[in-house]
Amino acid sequence: MAQQDDNLLKKIIAHAKEYGFVFPSSEIYDGLAAAYDYGQNGVELRNNIKSFWWKAMVQMNENIVGLDASIFMHPTTWKASGHVDAFNDPMIDNKDSKKRYRADVLLEEHIAKIEAKIDKEVDKAAKRFGDAFDKDQYLATNGRVLDYQKQIDDINARMKAALESEKLNDLKALIEELGIADPVSGSKKWTDVRQFNLMFSTELGSLADGASKIYLRPETAQGIFVNFLNVQKTGRMKIPFGIAQIGKAFRNEIIARQFIFRMREFEQMEMQFFVKPGDEMQWYEHWKETRIKWHKILGLGEDNYRFHDHLNLAHYANAACDIEFNFPMGFKELEGIHSRTDFDLKAHEEHSGKKLQFFDPQENKSYVPYVIETSIGLDRMFLAVLTAAYKEETLEDGSERTVLKIPAALAPYKVAVLPLLKKDGLPEKGREIMDSLKFDFNCQYDEKDAIGKRYRRQDAIGTPYCITIDHQTLEDNTVTLRHRDTSEQERIKVSELTGRVSELVSITSLLKQL
């Protein structure tokens, strides 16, 4: 269980701004809450994350194709999907601080504190028993741990019952009974819990049915569902097949906070996989396994991931889980994997009057496919990478550095070209090398300041390799290739640079592990 580390989050936010990754939106006007702009390094990292996801999802799978649907959709889309009637969060206000919270999140954070107590007991026992320690047996038999687990199970059961029955008073009663205080003021004076619809509405000039109210899409999935037949027929797709999409979504989050973790405008990377009814659970397990593998090959730390099964299933799901990541705020959702049944396609059939079915020639019949969804927040993935990458290190010579150990395939710049001096023909040679590399890699050229200072700058933005041009380069056409993570240096021929760097930074090497 991760402990919340507000200090780490503050450091990441400051670093992200100082080094051109993330800026507060419209900052010269004092910013806009929960809106952020991605700077020159941030946009490169985002694009690389998107590229890695797209290649793994679409390029590597013959039966998955892409789509880019409009943000604006006919308003009946959201009636059919259930968003107009059911896309609500249970909100509660603290009377003293005037802060607003999601009632279920307050309860989940209380549960996380109890889980931390269990972890503390496990750590103490592990130290006491050493190699003989059996964690599973300890969790199953220790009285104190069992008592903590019973508290967690009771809270979860009552929260689930209250959410499913929409008895919001029961949520408030549970919060008060547990003595949950406002994290800001410490006050325990709460208002009643009430539902708040998260969709942004806007006006459109004219619609065929005369209505003018439309919505900014709160998710990208519906654009895939309404195009199911278009893609299936034009692509001659056979079940099982998937449709992938990367795009913006918008939710009027009342408590958007924790930097880019929860924003009102965000980007999703989603894939809807259409399967034969009855086969959905084996595909659900397949995509759970496939997606966690995608995450882990990045090397962000095996222990930073865990699965969390949903207690309170959405109205459309028969199975759902999250891949959670160990953010500075503790373990939080990074990606969702859901078995959505045939809810969406059937709902759109009903509201549109159009058949959305697949004709199976083997069975000689038509049916509405079931859907397995994988949905990852790009902004959360970006924060996960920064969280795992951010390091403050003391080097052998006693000096300190802040380094972003971003996976090389995702790093904004793959190499920096650094002439040792701004004279003796070294800059000219540096430019020549830069010009040969920039066709294949995103490169930076830097000749300002001492070489050590330039290394630190590249460390801070996560550049995995630096190429230093010195006087020996002019004699034998070799350069120094410096490795960011170890500070080790290797001498390499200029003619071998492209091949060597490609081998070190290629997304292909990651994809081959899938």
Automatic annotation (TrEMBL):
Q: Which CDD domains match?
A: GlyRS-like_core, GlyRS_anticodon
Residue span, Aminoacyl-transfer RNA synthetases class-II family profile domain: 199-419
Q: Where does substrate bind?
A: 102, 219, 266-270, 373-377
Give the catalysed reaction(s), semicolon-separated: tRNA(Gly) + glycine + ATP = glycyl-tRNA(Gly) + AMP + diphosphate
- Subcellular localization: Cytoplasm
One MF term in the entry's GO annotations: ATP binding
Q: Which GO terms describe its cellular component?
A: cytoplasm; extracellular exosome; microvesicle
Q: Which UniProt keywords apply?
A: Aminoacyl-tRNA synthetase, ATP-binding, Cytoplasm, Ligase, Nucleotide-binding, Protein biosynthesis
Q: What's the Enzyme Commission number for this chain?
A: 6.1.1.14
PANTHER family attached to this UniProt entry: DNA POLYMERASE SUBUNIT GAMMA-2, MITOCHONDRIAL (PTHR10745:SF8), GLYCYL-TRNA SYNTHETASE/DNA POLYMERASE SUBUNIT GAMMA-2 (PTHR10745)
Q: What does this protein do?
A: Catalyzes the attachment of glycine to tRNA(Gly).
- Listed name of the protein: Glycine--tRNA ligase
